[in-house]
Specification:
This protein is α/β, with parallel strands linked by helices and about 400 residues long. Helices cover about 40% and strands about 15% of the residues. It has 15 helices and 15 strands. The structure holds uridine-5'-diphosphate-xylopyranose.
Length: about 400
C-alpha cells in the first residue's frame, strides 16, 4: 500500500517487530519485501511503525491484520482480533471524522458481525454505518510470493456493511487490475474459507486417487496431467504427495469444520479431507517400515522440514508428524532443510541429529525420506545405492530407479 503512494502507519504490540520495520528490516522472509520496505521506510518515508494505537487518530482507515490461531478444539482463537478491535474502538471514541475499519484477518463467517462490530461499538460508544464504517477484505497470499500475490491479485473481495464503507475500500484498490466482488460481510468471510477448503480438498482428492493408482501400477502424475487439461478442472493444485501443511490450509479447514459443528452441521467431506491429510504423511513411514522390516534402531534421514520449498516455515509441516512417528517406532532420525534449521532446532526434540547438508544427512542412513521438494534435493546422484522414499515427486522416478531403490508415497 505504501508503494502505491499511501501514507502507512503500522501498529503492533511487539516492539521488536516495530523497531525492525522502522529499520527497514522485515520480520518475515518474503521475496522482494525488504527492498520495497527500504524504499518506503527510507526513501519515500511513507511507512512507519508504532506500538501506540493512538496513532490511528492520524488515519482514515484501519486494517485489522492480526493472526487468528487455532484452538486445540479446531476453532479459531480470536483473542488477538478482539484485543485489536477493543483498542481500535477506544481510539475511535476520540476520532472526529468517519473512519473505516477493514478486517483482513481470516475470521470464520459471522465473526465480524458477531464479535468485531459489537466490540468496536462498545469501546467507541459509536454506531457502525453512522459514525464509522466496517468492511472485510480477505487476503489470498501464498507464503514465499506474498508480495507478488498482493500486488497482482486474481480477485479482490470486499465485504461491506454498507455502500459507503465498500466505496471507500474499493477506492484504495483503484490501481489494481483484478475483478472486484462487492458483497456482504459474511459472504466475504466465507469466500476465504471456501477457497482454502477447496484447495485442501483438491490435494486430498489427488492423494486419494494417487494411493489407488499406486496399487494399480498407474502413475498419478500422468493421471493428473490428463485430468488437468479439462478447463473445468484445471491443472493447478493437483500434485500428489504427503499432503498440505502451513499456517493456513490446515487451520482454516479445521476452523470451518468446527464452525459447521456450531451450526449443528457435520461437514463430512471436509472431515474426510482433513483425515486424509493427517494420514498421508504417515504412509512414508509405513513404506519405510515395510522395506526395512522394523524401524527400531534404524537410521532414517529426512530431507526437507518446511511445509513447502522456499520458506523456513515448518508450521503444520508433514515432516513433523513423520518425525514423531519415526521416533515413536524407535528410529534414529537425522534431518536437514536448506532454510528451516533454526526453527526446527527450536521445535524438535534435542536427540534428533541436525545435519548441515543433504549428503551429510544421507550418509550412514538406512533409508532417506524426502518431505519437501527443495531444488537441492533434485539430483538423483545424491542417493546412489540408498533406499529413498519420496513424498513430493522430488526425483524423476525413472532416473532414480537406475541409481537407488526408489519408491514414491503414491506412485
Ligand atoms: C495457502 C493458499 O494457497 C493461499 O491462497 C492462502 O491465502 C493461504 O494458504 P500457503 O499456505 O502459502 O497458501 O501454501 P500453498 O502454496 O497453498 O501450499 C499449501 C500446502 O499444500 C503445501 O504444504 C504444499 O506442499 C501443498 N500442496 C500444494 C500439495 O501437496 N499439492 C499441490 O498440488 C499444491
Amino acid at each position: 500500500m505504501a508503494s502505491k503512494g499511501h501514507q502507512i502507519i503500522c501498529i503492533d504490540v511487539d516492539k521488536v517487530k516495530v523497531d525492525q520495520i522502522n529499520h527497514a528490516s522485515s520480520p518475515i522472509r518474503e521475496v522482494d519485501l525488504e527492498n520495497l520496505l527500504l524504499t518506503c521506510v527510507n526513501h519515500q518515508a511513507n511507512l512507519k511503525a508504532y506500538t501506540d494505537y493512538k496513532r490511528i487518530l492520524n488515519s482514515n482507515m484501519t486494517f485489522i491484520c492480526v493472526d487468528t490461531l487455532s484452538r486445540s478444539d479446531g476453532g479459531i482463537d480470536l483473542s488477538h482480533v478482539r484485543d485489536s478491535a477493543r483498542e481500535i474502538g477506544r481510539v475511535l471514541a476520540k476520532v472526529r471524522s468517519y473512519h473505516l475499519v477493514v478486517v483482513k484477518s481470516t475470521v470464520v463467517p459471522g465473526t465480524t458481525e458477531g464479535t468485531i462490530i459489537p466490540t468496536l461499538e462498545k469501546y467507541s460508544s459509536k454506531k457502525v454505518g453512522r459514525d464509522f464504517g466496517v468492511a472485510t477484505n480477505p487476503e489470498f497470499l501464498q507464503e514465499g510470493k506474498a508480495l507478488h500475490c498482493f500486488l497482482n491479485p486474481v480477485r479482490i473481495i470486499i465485504g461491506e456493511h454498507d455502500r459507503r464503507a465498500g466505496d471507500i475500500l474499493q477506492e484504495i484498490y483503484q490501481d489494481f487490475s483484478a475483478p472486484i466482488l462487492r458483497t456482504d460481510i459474511k459472504t466475504a468471510e466465507m469466500i476465504k474459507y471456501a477457497a482454502n477448503a477447496f484447495l485442501a480438498t483438491r490435494i486430498s482428492f489427488i492423494n486419494e486417487i494417487g494411493n489407488m493408482c499406486k496399487k494399480l501400477g498407474i502413475d498419478i502424475y500422468e493421471v493428473a496431467k490428463g485430468v488437468g487439461y479439462d478447463p473445468r478442472i484445471g491443472n493447478k493444485f493437483l500434485d500428489a504427495g504427503i499432503g498440505f501443511g502451513g499456517s493456513c490450509l490446515p487451520k482454516d479447514l479445521e476452523a470451518l469444520i468446527f464452525r459447521a459443528g456450531e451450526l449443528n452441521y457435520t461437514a463430512e467431506l471436509l472431515q474426510s479431507v482433513s483425515k486424509m491429510n493427517k494420514e498421508q504423511p504417515l504412509r512414508l513411514v509405513e513404506i519405510a517400515r515395510k522395506r526395512l522390516g522394523s524401524l527400531e534402531n534404524k537410521v532414517v534421514a529426512i530431507l526437507g522440514l518446511a511445509f513447502k520449498p522456499n520458506t523456513d516455515d515448518i508450521r503444520q509441516a508433514p515432516a513433523l508428524s513423520i518425525i514423531a512417528r519415526l521416533l515413536a517406532e524407535g528410529a534414529t532420525v537425522k534431518v536437514y532443510d536448506p532454510k528451516a534449521m533454526p526453527s526446527a532446532k527450536r521445535l524438535l526434540p534435542g536427540h534428533i541429529k541436525f545435519c548441515d547438508s543433504a549428503p551429510d544427512t544421507i550418509a550412514g542412513s538406512d533409508c532417506v525420506l524426502i518431505a519437501t521438494e527443495w531444488d537441492e534435493f533434485k539430483d538423483e546422484n545424491l542417493y546412489a545405492g540408498k533406499l529413498v522414499i519420496d513424498g513430493r515427486r522430488t526425483l524423476n522416478p525413472e532416473k532414480a530407479k537406475q541409481l537407488c531403490q526408489y519408491e514414491g508415497v503414491c506412485w
